[in-house]
Amino acid sequence: MHDLESKSVENENREKLSSLSRRRFLAASVAGAIGVALAGAALWPIGEYLAPTGGGMEEEKVTIPRSQVGVGQAHYFNFRGRPAVVLQPDPGQFIALSVVCTHLGCVIKWQQDQQFFLCPCHAGKFSKTGQVLGGPPAGPLPSYPVAAKADQLVIG
């Protein structure tokens, strides 16, 4: 009879350990899934900033009021689903460019005081016409046609 009791106790202990192991596994799995989801949610905006995805040909042409683009200033907008900029380097002269760096696809920023574009990822520099001034970018920024019509700029 003593043998039966010890086997019964042993079986109960085995079931408790098995149940505890399943619970730990389930808890670890749920915690891991939540961790992956939170990491993805935190890193998604950074990825979108550094490498914007291109949309389709959403807009063939974009119209921007001339008053939004002062001399020496840049105005950012979306063109065909991608970030772009129009600037007025000299009075009456308008240039529209993609602001996606040709090196790794980061979004470049206009440095108004120095009159060039700077890539925040690897310090690539582009002139106001989109030509490479320095850093790792291999090619110039793509440009878009700009037409000044009355008080509007039509890009595309």
How would you describe what is shown here?
- A hairpin with a 6-residue loop joins β6 and β7 (125-126).
- The mean pLDDT is 81.
- The N and C termini lie far apart (92 Å).
- It contains 1 helix and 11 strands.
- The protein has 2 domains: 1-50; 62-155, Rieske [2Fe-2S] iron-sulphur domain (Rieske Iron-sulfur Protein).
- The longest helix has 49 residues, at 2-50.
- 19% of the residues are buried.
- A 4-stranded antiparallel β-sheet has the order 2-3-4-9, with no helix packed on it.
- By secondary structure, it is α+β, with helices and mostly antiparallel strands.
- The chain is elongated and about 95 Å long.
Low-confidence stretches: none
Strand order of the largest sheet: 2-3-4-9
Task: Determine the N-to-C terminus distance.
Answer: 92 Å
Elements, N to C (H/E): HEEEEEEEEEEE
Structural class: alpha+beta
Number of strands: 11
- Biggest β-sheet strands, sense, barrel: 4 strands, antiparallel
The amount of helix comes to 25-40%
**CATH homologous superfamily grouping of the largest domain:** Rieske [2Fe-2S] iron-sulphur domain
CATH class of the largest domain: Mainly Beta
Fold-level CATH name of the largest domain: Rieske Iron-sulfur Protein
Give average pLDDT, whole number: 81
User: Which CATH architecture of the largest domain?
Assistant: 3-layer Sandwich
For this entry, what is the oligomeric state of its chains?
Answer: single chain
Shape: elongated
What is the helix tally?
A: 1
Number of domains: 2
Radius of gyration from the alpha-carbon trace, in angstroms? 29 Å
In terms of DSSP E residues, the strand content is 25-35%
